[in-house]
Amino acid sequence: MDWFGRASINFTTSPKSLGLKEKDGQETDLLKVCQAAVPPCQLNPLLFNGHAQTMWTAAKAHGPPLHYKRKIFEADHAEFNGSFAVDFAVTGPSLKEEADETLPPRTAYFTEDELSTLGSDDDKPMLVVLHGLSGGSHEVYLRYAIAPLIDSGKWEACVVTSRGCANSKITTGLLYNARATWDVRQTIKWLTKTYPNRPLFGLGFSLGACILTNYLGEEGSATPLKAAVVVANPWALHISSKMLQSSFIGHHIYQRVLGNSMRALSSRHKEELDKYTNIDTDHLLGLKYLYEFDRAYQCPTWGYPTEEAYYRDASSSDSLLAVRIPLLALNAEDDPIVSHLALPYAEASTNPYTVLCTTSLGGHLGWFEIGGGRWHGKPVCNFLNHMAFEVDLNSINDNGHGEQTYGNPKHGTSYDPIRRKMHVKLNR
Q1: How many Å apart are CA 230 and CA 150, to the nearest integer?
Q2: E strand segments, 250-350
Q3: Which one is catalytic: 51, 364, 376, 386?
Q4: Active site residue 416
């Protein structure tokens, strides 16, 4: 029972959690690491439920100040061409004067000279971050999570900006969706080449958590990332969407707020959408709710027959089955945007590489503590610091799971979590 803002915490993982070895030789496992990384969750008792926690995120809190330099990438994917932005966390005394008024606060473009000198042989861990729907590197929830890592001087970090977000420009008619993994994949490849000795880690929030989980499922053990954290992942988009539409507050507040954010994003890029697509932008900009936007934009742009088909395809709960690096997932059970019915308890209990940590309170990207702090930053930093500096990442013991496959060999069936379809071998 919750009392005075004290949330209960639960962990879900495989009966045989992923075996790990500390650098001092001590044997441990992923569950033990996660349990040690997650502190007690004492939240502000005045924000007594998920709605209060979620709505308080609209307060104009300043949060920890971070400065960024932006690099523009040209996409290397033939079909998903165009440009996208990546913001790199930077430190230095003159950054305040360098801020660009056309970009989010405390952000400027790299100069040509700075771009020419990017790269190093150092072995500092590097964090690749994905923000939430229509957000960016400036978001308060993101800065609360990564500021302690940057301020420690031991980490580097960059934020992959979803196309069109955070004052970035699009050069085609493509924005992004929850299966849009190609930009983070290209960024990770570039980081691997540019900083060959840096171990890479991942962190995603909300829709960015969905994208990151889908990327990890697609890559499996081939990803260069060593470990990752996903926070407030919506997991089963079709379930969350239906739950939102089924209540007054979900439909007329949350769906509308999310829809307004995408309408504003589309408005900023109306010229490009008119130039490169056949979408009726006047109709698009008159819509109110997120599911209406997804029907009017995501479906014709990506070829989905319905928004429900998009939600099912873009959901990441099945991708969780294919993750093959240590992954900590944080969700609040009272999150009104991510329904508790969408949380992947069964999938997490199947995969030893994943631990699902749920708190009974917290809302959607809330977790507000007394005094205004954000609890979620503590387990994020604790877990990443432990994995980067305490664990021997070359000694992972999968407890015999290996590249786990699903299906029934007796009947010639196999299941691919990424394709989300059962396959039957045909006798010819």
Answers
A1: 19
A2: 327-332
A3: 364
A4: no
Burial of 167 per CB tally in 10 Å (0-12, 13-18, 19+): middle
Residue 292: is its pLDDT beyond 50? Answer: yes
Average pLDDT over residues 377-396: 95
Query: Distance of CA 68 to CAs 97, 125, 211, 225, 409, Å?
Result: 12, 17, 22, 22, 51
Q: Taking residues 350-354, report their average pLDDT.
A: 97
pLDDT number for residue 401: 52
Q: Which two tokens stand for residue 376?
A: 């979620």
> With the C-alpha atoms ordered 305, 308, 313, 314, is the resulting torsion angle positive or negative?
positive
pLDDT per residue over 273-288, tens digit each?
Answer: 999 999 999 999 999 9
Q: Is 335 designated active site?
A: yes
Structural tokens at position 218? 């697609």
CB 43 within 8 A of CB 5: yes
User: Helices (H) and strands (E) in the chain — how many of each?
Assistant: 17, 17
Residues 6+ positions from 49 with CB-CB distance below 8 Å: 334, 361, 363
**Token pair of 360, please?**
């009974």
Q: Which of 14, 17, 206, 339 is catalytic?
A: 206
Which residues fall within 8 angstroms of residue 385, CB to CB, at 6 or more apart?
149, 154
pLDDT digits (tens, 9 = 90+) for 400-413: 555 677 887 777 78
The pLDDT of residue 428: 46
423 a catalytic residue: no
CA distance 294 to 313: 13
| Prediction pTM value | 0.96
* pLDDT tens per residue, range 163-206: 999 999 999 999 999 999 999 999 999 999 999 999 999 999 99
User: How many other β-carbons are positioned within 10 Å of the β-carbon of residue 199?
Assistant: 16
**pLDDT at residue 425 is higher than 70:** no
Options 335, 339, 376, 386, the catalytic residue? 335
* Exposure string for 224-235, b = 16+ CB within 10 A, e = fewer: bbbbbbbbbbbb
Residue 61 confidence class, pLDDT cut points 50, 70, 90: confident
Sorted by where each starts, the structural domains of the chain and their CATH numbers stand as 6-236+315-395 (3.40.50.1820), 243-314 (no CATH)
